[in-house]
């Protein structure tokens, strides 16, 4: 799911043109006489057989302890967008489309929506894709949500750095200064949230009692419902869980 071509297309086109590390190293060793071509090919074939045998054996397994499956490899962005169009025509909705429509309805009403966090532009599960990247022109992007209506409010979505407490502190201040905006910060995994714990403890959970301030910031933890969280997510204040849900 973590496909870098979504957001760094030109860089990874260059990377795909490079020889693999195994091939480069093998050519060096063969040229230096350390190994022969035959020995290298036999080792590769031996390893391939190990993988193929394991794959064949996996078909005999009847119980899979996995909650979520993708039924096919990464299909490309066009298929994802066509899938959304199909859902709209069939009046169906998944998580990503539901979020899209919720944000869009607020924007049409003139409410600024601001979302930041790790990989929020494409989404933790490569499900969101709120920023589309040109596959041939570097840094040429489109944010479709900013083209819903001529008199809509702006939609701001940006990937943030891994200084989580700094980013969450900034977003908390932004929400304080813009009480009529929907300001969201998304922690990709529990360990990202852990690094922002000091902001939660010092300012958010105690905001009204200690600082006599109310704040409408919304915290999102997409992995929180499937066990893929860090050690301190149980410390999230109850009010934040309500907002996130």
TrEMBL record:
It is found in: Mitochondrion; Nucleus. Pfam families: E1_dh, Transket_pyr. Belongs to the alpha-ketoglutarate dehydrogenase family. Residues 93-244 form the Transketolase-like pyrimidine-binding domain. This is 2-oxoglutarate dehydrogenase complex component E1. Its cofactor is thiamine diphosphate; Mg(2+). SMART domains: Transket_pyr. The keyword Membrane does not apply. Transmembrane segments: none annotated. Keywords: Calcium, Glycolysis, Isopeptide bond, Magnesium, Mitochondrion, Nucleus, Oxidoreductase, Thiamine pyrophosphate, Transit peptide, Ubl conjugation. The keyword Calcium applies. It catalyses: N(6)-[(R)-lipoyl]-L-lysyl-[protein] + 2-oxoglutarate + H(+) = N(6)-[(R)-S(8)-succinyldihydrolipoyl]-L-lysyl-[protein] + CO2. Its EC number is 1.2.4.2.
């Amino acid at each position: 799911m973590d496909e870098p071509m979504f957001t760094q297309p030109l860089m990874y086109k260059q990377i795909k043109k490079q020889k693999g590390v195994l091939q480069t190293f093998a050519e060096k060793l063969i040229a230096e006489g350390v190994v022969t071509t035959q020995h290298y090919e036999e080792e590769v074939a031996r390893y391939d057989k190990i993988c193929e045998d394991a794959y064949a054996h996996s078909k005999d397994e009847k119980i899979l302890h996995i909650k979520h499956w993708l039924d096919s490899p990464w299909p490309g962005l066009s298929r994802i967008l066509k899938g959304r169009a199909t859902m709209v025509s069939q009046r169906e909705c998944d998580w990503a489309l539901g979020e899209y429509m919720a944000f869009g309805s607020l924007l049409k009403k003139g409410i600024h929506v601001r979302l930041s966090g790790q990989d929020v532009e494409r989404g933790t599960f490569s499900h969101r894709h709120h920023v589309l990247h040109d596959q041939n022109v570097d840094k040429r992007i489109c944010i479709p949500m900013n083209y819903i209506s001529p008199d809509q409010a702006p939609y701001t979505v940006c990937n943030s750095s891994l200084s989580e407490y700094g980013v969450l502190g900034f977003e908390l201040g932004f929400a304080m200064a813009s009480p009529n905006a929907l300001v969201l910060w998304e922690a990709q995994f529990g360990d990202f949230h852990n690094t922002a714990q000091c902001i939660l403890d010092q300012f958010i959970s105690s905001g009204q009692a200690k600082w006599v301030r109310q704040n409408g910031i919304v915290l999102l933890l997409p992995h929180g419902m499937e066990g893929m969280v860090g050690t301190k997510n149980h410390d999230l204040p109850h009010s934040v869980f309500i907002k996130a849900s």
